[in-house]
Amino acid sequence: MVPWTSEPGSEKLNNTDLKTAYNKAGQPSHLVAYISNASFQSMYGPHAWTSVFTAGLWLLFSRSVSGYQVTCRTTGMRFDCVFACGPCDTPEVSFFRQGRKLATSAVRGLTLDELEWDDRGVHWISRRLVRFILNEVGPGLREWIENSEHPSIHILPERALPRDFRAAAVDLQ
Does pTM surpass 0.85? Predict the structure, then answer.
């Protein structure tokens, strides 16, 4: 289970179940993803940082990095993301640093059909977003990601996500 906190914009990192981030209607009203080196290593072993690619996708939507908050026009859901990262000499930290530039130039064209999650907290991402990230970040991270077999990284067909997510555009505030 990926650690989550339901406190938007909070610096307090809580290991809570994904379901606690859902409101009474069963929709994620405020969702903050927290992925730390220690938590993933404890669950998946010493090479667990391969899963940080998923975190990098969330980073594009991170107010803590870009100054933006994402709101779904259809449902009114707001998304914030905060991340804890590992040692400064690791590839994923370079990816995090790239997030500031990517968020300001790229997120405007994305819709919620790019992201999905299941009740285990596993992220699902579309091939279009995978291609975009790989092309923007460069061959070093491309090789690192393509060699990963981490279970939290799933690449879906373009139209494999639910209709309500495909139809929901996002607006940056």
Answer: no
